[in-house]
Fold this protein.
Amino acid sequence: MNRSEFQNKGNQHFSLAHWNSYYSELYLPNTILIALGLFIGIGGNVLVIFVYQRGLKDKGHGRYFIPMLAKSDLACITVSSVYNIVQITRHVTFPDSWICKSFLYILRVVLANSTFIMTVIAVNRYQHICKRFKWDFTSRNLKIFIILAELFILTSNLSPLFTYGTVTVNRDNVTGYMCKEVDDEALQLERKMIIFTGIYHSVEICLICVSYGLIAINVHKTVRKMASSRQSTVKEGIREKKKWINNLRRLNSTSSNRKTPWLTYRITLMFFISFLFMLIAFIPPYILIDLETKDPQYWDRKNDNISKNALLVLRMLYSTNTIVNPFIYGFFDNAFRRKLVAIIFKRN
């Protein structure tokens, strides 16, 4: 950005209003996308919370976690969207230092909370399906574990309260205020926090991938056993068929009927697809944040407005999985769809 860009727009005098207007108009496509995502994200997650908590009686097969994840997604899409809109529309006129600190702190907490819940879901699905350990998630133990983890998340993300604030920026004798790192020491601390966050989330991602990988192996072995049992049934007749049915029931002992395990697998696949969307959504922003901290002039070096908008879309991609998740639930969970239709048409 330079002064000639404002002059070309017909501004006779370079002012703070012109300076801020430049960013607002430049990133208007992103503002529209954010507002649309905010509308869809809030509507979808509120609907999910209402249906699963108030309408759907069956909380089994892992559905217990869906309202918890939807609440985290609702907080994430709300905070991130409002913060990004303020950043765009008040880019060099950011209203207050504590608003800047609070937004970034809350945003990091809700993002960390989302990845944590995904990790708990993956481990819970592994234990529920594979039964490798004697322990299991009881409701009480799960609540205690979540409370302790939430305390860790709240305390380990405190750095924005000390490193961020409204910083004065100057151009052509005009002073503006931006939400950014307060000084070079804060910038260095943020770089260390990015490394810490990267390691922390990498451990969670590895744990999730291992859990779902072991689940896939278990399901594959189960299917092979069932296929083998079917072949032996054809060869050995009615007597062996009864034996195969008994073996099948033993394999599916996690439920009260033969259809239930496949619903468990379907819900587990649903959570895995949601995790993949989260992973895809987190990688580009992490890379761009790392580039920003290494080069404070990273965005100013971009001269093409199209590339600036495209990069900003990638920079804010971390909240897209919160918009997609309600659609994933609707696709994989038939009971959710049926209950949603019943609520809409007021059926009993």
Remarks:
- Confidence is low (pLDDT under 50) at residues 6-11, 253-260.
- The chain is about 75% helix and 5% strand.
